Backbone:
């Protein structure tokens, strides 16, 4: 099949989504009007305009009748995220006269919920554009949940086999449209609750709204150059902890809670693992800070609770610079960034489910080594026995993805170093920054800054995109572009 | 089965091997006599004595009749290597009054062909002990080849399934005894040829013998504190290149060449990949050195040819310190160290076969994503189609091992950093050194030195042991010790 014919399969789906985005992205215009930033109306208004025009154009393309393939969904989602970043960059280019690369970086960091920024001065940026950053993160967060859920319930990459083998229907929502509406409602409710919670700390409404949007999306943009330390409020930091955790929980739980009225947080292994990891992270960071840094106990507690949660949920808020920390503590931070939150949440990283499945595969293999001869060792997943051949496929796919994560960090770091010669920043800072971008985390050493070379900026843009979609969609797009889609 | 009963299965096999080692390790006594280092006779004589006594003691243990299991072979080989390191440390403790930890480190670095050293002054060390270091590397090199071959042809972990599925018998040698004799003969011939080759450079016979022993074993010990730069001979460096490559080739090829009179280097994919990787490495390092370091073309050529070969073959000789190099070049070096040489050779690292199988798995999965519905995509390995369920198992095991490699580097680095607070050495140097020890490579930043804390030294001892046996044997030993062998 030719590349053009292939894209014509995707076009109508993309068109519908873009036209929908055209309507949703009208909201920042309200912010411009409220704050009377009239000069922002045109830059901001271009976004819905382009989305609607592009969407309508794509909808005119006739869709050839062909069966759906996994590669089609992958290619479509990869293209949607990239196009959204390009369109999302327009307000920064037109309204702030930022360079094109920096603007695309900013929008990609927004849609992918990464939170790294190239804004020259956050405090001096018009409120409309600050809201646009927060809003992109909020939309991107729900977008990735919807994509993951659709993938699990429809085309079935991630671990579908594990469920199907038990004859259990994983379709926790009847259709994508139904999913969409239920999702929006739940997401909206959680966001409103978060705004209320954050207001308890006494920050202004404007700050509370933006912080809630970016915390629940585990995005991490703030509306001040200083970030979270601007508020200098331990209360705010502790109030943000549950919001970040809520963003990194599997959203399926909220659905079950809201529609089926059953709360089963402790029955979900990802939720349990997330909370355990956060506790372990707090414990380790606290110990390291007390024994290795020698700061006072309350500061150590405040830093460890906030930073461990921000790292493991991939939100990337910071109430301190981890580069005043001992090296070994920073390495723990990297590990938490790599693991990331739950799959089916707004969080980034490899995902807890993937790490758990990897561990199960390891245990399984160990048992098989110890057992003599041809005795059969069953594979157990979530308390059930899985058919052997299905287990092999799922374990193996999972391992591949994990290896691709490590490889990407490696290749990304080498690529950045080919563009930048680190004099001030040692190489381990570059690795840290690549992991942070790739896992859509956003904790930064300061290496990512507007002075960086254009090449390095594009590596980071690519790495954020690659990581948000968990590698395969972008890889499939590139392989398809190069080798054709057959 | 109880732990003691379990060890009684292994004891006779270990006893035979230790008694054999007792006879072989008489050779360094000849060196002591030749150089009239009479005070070294006792320290060196303790090694064969202990080996023979321990071996005989183990042989008296009655072996319970039980079927052989993979875990038995794994546990035995892990214990053999560790015991050999403890016994091998005696001459350094008794003859040189080195601390026990440093001596075990030195012997482990010898038997595992790593080449990192804690000797306080190589030039001032008695020749008997220098020969003992080289000889441990030489024996350890053949030992690991024999272990890998035995594993493939008997119990069959590594990729046996891939061969068996084609009904092809992989037993390239009829029995372990036969293997042993054929191996010793071939290894001896190659070593003699290497000595002759190295003598062409004009170095003394003493140096040529030691360099040949450690080069063919891809071990990397030298007899001068300065290492290879001591000789300041470009000719020697170029002559060592083919010897190192010979050590990292699959030894199966030599067997086929010697006994079947057919040379099939270019028919073996590991051999082809090894040479290609060396060429790529030379090319990349040369380019980086010319464009980023700005040294003259001949020096760049000399450094890139020697360092790339030393890195990819895991020999670890150095004709320059890579820490005068740009960071990005060092990262390439880490990548080459991680890949390592061929499996079934004396080289360390993940092994080329494992990397190739990983890539095949990736390609296979890609094809399956692009193909619609239930169409079957065959798995191709070495030009043949492999049964699907076998392919799944092998691909999945392979991925697990690769992930364990990355994990070990991570955990090892964190462990070292808990014992050492790097002030002079930045954290990326620690990662480099852990990779170098783990992949039995031995290229060093200078971080490993006698001043290091005892804890860090033990982490390195463990990591060398873990890496040489390719993870599983040591892991099985520990899991068995903790959870029992059932
Ligand atoms: K983030
Ligand atoms: K070595």
Residues:
């Amino acid at each position: 099949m030719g590349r053009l014919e292939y894209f014509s399969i995707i076009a109508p789906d993309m068109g519908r989504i873009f036209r929908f985005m055209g309507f949703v992205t009208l909201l920042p215009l309200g912010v411009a009007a409220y704050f009377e930033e009239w000069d922002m109306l045109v830059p901001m208004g271009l976004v819905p305009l382009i989305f609607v025009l592009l969407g309508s154009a794509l909808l005119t393309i006739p869709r050839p009748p062909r069966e759906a393939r996994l590669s089609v969904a992958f290619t479509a989602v990869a293209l949607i995220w990239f196009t959204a970043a390009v369109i999302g960059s327009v307000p920064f280019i037109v309204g702030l006269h930022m360079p094109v690369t920096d603007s695309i970086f900013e929008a990609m960091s927004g849609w992918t919920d990464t939170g790294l920024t190239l804004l020259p001065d956050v405090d001096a940026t018009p409120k409309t554009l600050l809201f646009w950053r927060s809003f992109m993160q909020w939309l991107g967060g729900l977008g990735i949940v919807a994509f993951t859920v659709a993938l699990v319930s429809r085309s079935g990459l991630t671990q579908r086999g594990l469920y199907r083998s038990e004859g259990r229907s994983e379709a926790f929502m009847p259709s994508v449209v139904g999913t969409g509406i239920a999702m929006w409602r739940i997401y909206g409710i959680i966001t409103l609750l978060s705004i209320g919670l954050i207001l308890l700390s006494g920050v202004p409404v404007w700050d509370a709204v933006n912080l809630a949007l970016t915390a629940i999306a585990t995005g991490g943009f703030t509306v001040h150059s200083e970030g979270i330390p601007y508020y200098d409020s331990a209360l705010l930091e502790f109030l943000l902890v549950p919001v970040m955790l809520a963003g990194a929980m599997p959203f399926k739980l909220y659905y079950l809670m809201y529609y089926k009225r059953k709360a089963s947080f402790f029955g979900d292994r990802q939720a349990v693992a997330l909370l355990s990891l956060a506790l372990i992270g707090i414990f380790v960071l606290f110990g390291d800070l007390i024994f290795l840094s020698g700061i006072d106990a309350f500061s150590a507690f405040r830093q460890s609770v906030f930073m461990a949660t921000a790292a493991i949920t991939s939100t990337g808020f910071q109430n301190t610079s981890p580069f005043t920390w001992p090296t070994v503590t920073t390495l723990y931070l990297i590990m938490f960034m790599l693991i990331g939150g739950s799959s089916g949440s707004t969080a980034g990283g490899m995902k807890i489910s993937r790490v758990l499945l990897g561990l199960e595969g390891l245990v399984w293999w160990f048992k098989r080594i110890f057992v003599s001869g041809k005795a059969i060792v069953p594979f157990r997943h979530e308390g059930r026995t899985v058919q052997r051949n299905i287990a092999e496929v799922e374990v193996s796919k999972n391992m591949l993805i994990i290896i691709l994560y490590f490889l990407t960090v490696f290749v990304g770091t080498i690529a950045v170093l080919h563009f930048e010669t680190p004099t001030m920043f040692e190489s381990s800072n570059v690795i840290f920054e690549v992991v942070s971008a790739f896992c859509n985390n956003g904790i930064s050493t300061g290496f990512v800054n507007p002075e960086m070379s254009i090449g390095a900026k594009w590596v980071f843009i690519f790495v954020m995109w690659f990581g948000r979609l968990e590698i395969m969609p972008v890889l499939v797009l590139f392989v398809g572009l190069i080798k054709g889609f057959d």
